[in-house]
Design a protein that fits this description.
- The protein is α+β, with helices and mostly antiparallel strands and 270 residues long.
- Strand 7 and strand 8 form a beta hairpin.
- Helix 5 crosses helix 11.
């Protein structure tokens, strides 16, 4: 049995991508997907735009560190912790009750399709670009970088851009990755930046500095993808709709059960 458990644990760790290491402890995508399930709404942490993904990871790490500090301070033995733990147990028990109801619900595919058809415009993957940038404090610095990139193209351009980003960019979030911002939509960045990035051709960079409230940017657009209508064959879409329908049905069942129990109980309100 012990060998089976070890093997299962090994398989799980092999399938999980390590997103960060905090004081020697690995933080995986599987862990974040589970802990942030409600916030992510059925999406995977790895499917988010790079900056949004990084924000969630940083928030989770900060929370993890605070919890570790609370344990070191012995707050688990505090009276306030015990009182809140009792409340948390009741809340968890309510959640388990709801989950048991949800497990018994069978979702009719016709309901899923009907809800999809009614809200089709909500299931659209916006146009996005994959770009790099170098952020500096002045227009002159940005122009010097543009001059240094010169007429470079292809892999030579990318290589030089990464080198300059690591050496000169003041954006700590992307500098270590050679300025890589990953994929992002127009609404994910401030307008001057998005306008510039989306107007570039693949494999080209801005020939004049792009000014934002953060400083002056040189942007290299690597690739782009067009706006896409998601269909029910996309697993995340179907799962999202099923979860919506299930939540509505669970809410209805909870209200019904509460009424039944209330009517059957001896209740005296004074």
């Amino acid at each position: 049995m012990k060998k089976i458990l070890v093997l299962a644990s090994l398989c799980a760790s092999l399938n999980a991508a390590v997103l960060a290491v905090v004081n020697g402890k690995e933080i995986t995508d599987a862990e974040l997907n589970k802990r942030l399930e409600q916030v992510l709404g059925g999406k995977s942490i790895s499917s988010l735009p790079a900056e949004q993904k990084r924000m969630f990871i940083q928030q989770y790490i900060a929370q993890h560190l605070i919890i570790e500090d609370a344990k070191k301070k012995g707050y688990e033995k505090d009276k306030l912790y015990a009182e809140n733990l009792d409340l948390a147990k009741e809340s968890i028990l309510m959640g388990v009750y709801q989950q048991k109801l949800a497990d018994e619900i069978k979702i009719d595919n016709s309901k899923v399709k009907a809800l999809y058809d009614k809200n089709k415009n909500q299931f659209v993957e916006p146009a996005a670009v994959h770009a790099r940038h170098i952020l500096v404090n002045s227009d002159a610095e940005a122009r010097a970088i543009i001059s240094e990139l010169g007429t470079l193209k292809g892999s030579a351009l990318t290589s030089k851009f990464e080198e300059l980003a690591r050496a000169k960019s003041i954006d700590p979030g992307s500098a270590s990755r050679g300025g890589d911002l990953g994929w992002f939509g127009e609404a994910d960045m401030v307008k001057p930046f998005s306008d510039a990035a989306f107007s570039l051709k693949n494999g080209t960079f801005t020939k004049t500095p792009v000014k934002t409230q953060f400083g002056y940017h040189v942007i290299l657009k690597e690739e782009a993808r067009a706006k896409k209508q998601l269909t029910l064959s996309d697993a995340n879409v179907k799962k999202f709709i099923e979860n919506q329908i299930k939540a509505q049905e669970v809410n209805s069942l909870m209200n019904q059960k509460a009424k039944e129990l209330f009517d059957a109980a001896k209740v005296e309100i004074k």
